[in-house]
UniProtKB/TrEMBL annotation:
Alphabetized GO MF terms: transferase activity
Keyword Coiled coil on entry: yes
Name recorded for this polypeptide: Aspartyl/glutamyl-tRNA amidotransferase subunit A
Amidase domain boundaries: 22-440
Organism of derivation: Antarctobacter heliothermus
UniProtKB keywords: Coiled coil, Plasmid, Transferase
Residue runs in coiled coils: 351-378
UniProt superkingdom: Bacteria
A Pfam entry, by short name: Amidase
Gene3D superfamilies, per the entry: Amidase signature (AS) domain
InterPro entries found in the cross-reference section: Amidase, Amidase_dom, AS_sf
C-alpha cells in the first residue's frame, strides 16, 4: 500500500522504504484509472514527472532528502504559470497559453524536491462554474460524481480526495481553497494575505487573492506551506515576514487557548444543516476537553462581510477582463461571460462603499482577534450539492462563511469532520490571527486526530 499523506510518504522516503519513482508511478496509475470519472486534471505531465522522480530518487540515495517534500507527488491549480507547460485558467481564451517561467510558488515547491504531475481543473478564471461549454469538463466530487466539488480550486480538492496526488496548490479569493476542501473531505488553508507570493498566479481580484496549500491533513498543509511562503519583491502585496516552522505547535496541548464561536454566523445569519451544526459542537467539545477556553462572540452580520467581499471581487474581476470581454467574448464560457457582464454594471461608488465597509469590518475582526486566539464557524452550509442543482448565479445568491477572512486578510482553514447523511463530507472552519497559521495547524490537527478515532 502506498502512503496516503505527505507526512507518511516523507518518512518512508527518508527511510528508503519507498522510492519517489514508485510513489509517482502509483499516483500516475491512479490518475489513469480515475481521472476520466472526476476530471481533476487538465494536463498530465507523466514523462516529466517520472524524470523528476528519478532525479529525486538518485539524490536521496546519495545525500538523503533535500527537504521533507523531496520526492512528493503534487500538482498545481491551472492558474499557476508553469514554464513550458500550458496554463489555461480552464478557459478557451488561454487554451494554448504556454508560459516561459514558473510562478513563484511553483518554483519554490520544485526547489523543495516535489514531483509535479500536472495541472488541475478550476472554475473558469477561478470565478464561474461548473461550466460544460469549455474545452475541458468541470471536476466532479470523488465521493459521488453526481455532486459538485465547489470552486474554484476544484481539481486540487478532487485529486487529493481521490488519491491522485498527495497535495497541491490552490488559490482563495472568497473561499476557493476552503470550499472545495469542505465538499471533498480534505484540508485546505487560506494563509494570511501576503504570506505567499502571487507572482505568476493568474489574478481574479488582486486585493483579495491568496495562494495556499491543499492536502489530506493539517500537518500535510503545514509541510507544503513551509515551502510556499516567503517574501517576494516581485509581488507588491507580498509581506516581508519571517517564515516560522508551521508544524512547530502540532501535538502541543491547548490549555489556555481562547476560542471564539461565531454562533450567529452558522445558526442565524446563514443556518447550516444539522450535520454541520453537530460537527461544530463536536469540535467545541474536543477543544474544551483539551483545555481550551471557549465562548460565543458576536460580529457584524455575515452578509455584511460577504457582500463587501463579493462586490470587491466582481468589480476587480470585471476590470481585469474588460478588454478581453470586449474583443473576445465568444471565447468565454456562458457562465463566466454572464458573470462578468453583470459585474461590469457595478459602479465605482459600489466599489468605494464596499472598500469603506471593508475597513470597518477589518477593524472589528482584528480587534476580536485580540480577545481570542482562534474563531470557529462552518465552512459550508452542508454537504455538496448535485451538479445539476447549481444555479447560474451560484455564489451570489447567499452569504459565504469563508468570505470574512478574505475580506480582512486573516488566515482560515477548512477542517474535515467526517460525513453527513448523504455520505458526503462535512467541514468546520477555523480563523486565526495575522501570520498565525501555525496555531491553526495545531488546532486543526487535534480536531482531525480526535475525529479520526
Amino acid at each position: 500500500m502506498m502512503p496516503t499523506t505527505i507526512a507518511e510518504a516523507s518518512r518512508l522516503i527518508a527511510r528508503k522504504e519507498i522510492s519517489p519513482v514508485e510513489l509517482t508511478q502509483s499516483c500516475l496509475d491512479q490518475i489513469e484509472s480515475e481521472n476520466d470519472k472526476i476530471a481533476a486534471f487538465i494536463t498530465v505531465t507523466a514523462d516529466t514527472a517520472l524524470a523528476t522522480a528519478r532525479q529525486a530518487e538518485s539524490r536521496i540515495m546519495q545525500e538523503g532528502p533535500r527537504t521533507p517534500l523531496d520526492g512528493i507527488p503534487i500538482a498545481h491549480k491551472d492558474i499557476f504559470n508553469t514554464a513550458g507547460i500550458r496554463t489555461t485558467a480552464h478557459s478557451r481564451l488561454l487554451e494554448h497559453n504556454v508560459p516561459t517561467t514558473d510562478a513563484t510558488v511553483v518554483r519554490r515547491l520544485a526547489e523543495a524536491g516535489t514531483v509535479m504531475l500536472g495541472k488541475l481543473s478550476t472554475l473558469e478564471f477561478a470565478l464561474a462554474g461548473p461550466s460544460f461549454d469549455l474545452p475541458w469538463p468541470p471536476a466532479r466530487n470523488p465521493w459521488n460524481t453526481d455532486h459538485f466539488t465547489a470552486g474554484s480550486s476544484s481539481g486540487t480538492a478532487a485529486a487529493v480526495a481521490a488519491g491522485l496526488i498527495l497535495g497541491g496548490t490552490g488559490s482563495d479569493t472568497g473561499g476557493s481553497i476552503r470550499g472545495p476542501a469542505a465538499m471533498c473531505g480534505t484540508t485546505g488553508i487560506k494563509p494570511t494575505y501576503g504570506r505567499c507570493s502571487r507572482t505568476g498566479m493568474l489574478p481574479l481580484a488582486p486585493s483579495l487573492d491568496q495562494a495556499g496549500p491543499m492536502a489530506s491533513t493539517a500537518r500535510d498543509c503545514a509541510m507544503l506551506l513551509q515551502h510556499m511562503a516567503g517574501h517576494d519583491s516581485t509581488d507588491p502585496a507580498s509581506q516581508n515576514q519571517p517564515v516560522p516552522d508551521f508544524s512547530s505547535l502540532i501535538g502541543q496541548g491547548l490549555r489556555g487557548l481562547r476560542v471564539g464561536v461565531i454562533r450567529h454566523f452558522h445558526e442565524h445569519d446563514l443556518p447550516a444543516h444539522p450535520p454541520v451544526l453537530s460537527a461544530i459542537e463536536r469540535s467545541i467539545d474536543i477543544l474544551c476537553a483539551e483545555g481550551a477556553e471557549v465562548r460565543d462572540v458576536i460580529l457584524s452580520p455575515l452578509l455584511d462581510y460577504s457582500a463587501a467581499n463579493k462586490i470587491i471581487m466582481n468589480c476587480e474581476a470585471a476590470a481585469l477582463h474588460e478588454a478581453a470581454l470586449k474583443n473576445h467574448s465568444h471565447l468565454y464560457g456562458a457562465l463566466l461571460r454572464g458573470r462578468l457582464i453583470v459585474a461590469s454594471m457595478l459602479s465605482s461608488n459600489d466599489y468605494i462603499q464596499a472598500q469603506r465597509r471593508r475597513q470597518e469590518l477589518s477593524q472589528e475582526l482584528v480587534e476580536m482577534m485580540r480577545e481570542v486566539d482562534v474563531l470557529i464557524t462552518a465552512t459550508a452550509v452542508g454537504e455538496a450539492p448535485r451538479m445539476d442543482e447549481i444555479t447560474t448565479w451560484d455564489g451570489l445568491e447567499s452569504p459565504s462563511f469563508t468570505a470574512p477572512w478574505n475580506l480582512v486578510g486573516l488566515p482560515a482553514i477548512a477542517v474535515r469532520m467526517g460525513f453527513g447523511p448523504k455520505g458526503l463530507p462535512i467541514s468546520v472552519q477555523l480563523g486565526g490571527r495575522k501570520f498565525d497559521e501555525a496555531r491553526l495547524f495545531q488546532v486543526a490537527d487535534l480536531i482531525e486526530a480526535n475525529n479520526d478515532k
